[in-house]
């Protein structure tokens, strides 16, 4: 049985919490050692741009540019770019990203 959600939980939900397994996969990415994370990011970029090589360029104007954000991926520009790109990918691409991170 699911735990009851506390009031306001829905408002605090992150965009990636809505996709099965993505939040957990991003947590793996978050705690990965630097070299391993860099390798994962390179593979993630390949997956994201496989259907459309210009995908990141096309959607980057939608990315939040708030210098006061303190999310774990905001301090690394490449990580920030890939994570924000994921937000605009389709479910199939996100599934592929989750599978990639889980097998790394």
List the helices and strands and how they pair.
Elements: H1 9-12, H2 22-31, H3 34-50, H4 55-59, H5 77-86, H6 91-103
Helix pairs in contact: 2-6, 3-5, 3-6
Question: What would your notes on this structure say?
Answer:
The chain is an all-alpha fold. It has one domain (16-103). Helices cover 57% and strands 0% of the residues. The protein contains six helices and no strands. It has helices at residues 9-12, 22-31, 34-50, 55-59, 77-86, 91-103. Helix 2 packs across helix 6 and helix 3 packs antiparallel against helix 6 (91-103). The radius of gyration is 14 Å and the shape is globular. It starts with 8 loop residues before the first helix and ends with a helix.
Describe the structure concisely:
With 104 residues, this protein is mostly helical. The chain has helices spanning 9-12, 22-31, 34-50, 55-59, 77-86, 91-103.
Would you report the number of β strands?
0
Shape: globular
What is the average per-residue confidence, as pLDDT, rounded to a whole number?
87
Percent strand: under 5%
How many domains? The number is 1
Tally of contiguous helical segments? 6
What is the radius of gyration computed over CA atoms, rounded to a whole number of angstroms?
14 Å
| Class inferred from helices and paired strands | mainly alpha
Fraction of residues in H or I helices: 55-70%
Q: What does the largest sheet look like?
A: none
| Sequence of secondary-structure elements | HHHHHH
Low-confidence stretches: 1-9
Termini gap: 31 Å
